[in-house]
Amino acid sequence: MRIRTLAARLFALTAIWAIFAIALVAWLISQNFRESVEENLTDRLTANLYNIMGSVSPSDDGLLVGRPDLRDSRFQAFQSGYYWSVTEVANPSNQISSSSLVGEMIEVPRTLSFDDSFQRETKIMDKAGQHLVAIEAQAFLGEGDKLFSFKITGNQTEIDEQVSEFVRQLLLILGLFAMGFILVTYFIVRIGLAPLRDATQRLGDIREGRAEKLEGTYPLEIQPLIDETNSLIQSNRSVIDRARTQVGNLAHSLKTPLAVLRNEAVKAKPELKNLIQLQVAQMQGQVQTYLDRARISARSGTVTSRTDTKPALERLVRVMCKLNPSIEIECSYETVEPYVFAGEQQDFEEMTGNLLENACKFANSKIQIHSKIVNNQIEIDIDDDGKGMSEEQSVLALQRGIRIDETKPGSGLGLSIVKDIANEYGGTIKLSKAHLGGLQARLSIPAVQVKN
Question: Do 246 and 150 lie in a common domain?
Answer without folding.
Answer: no
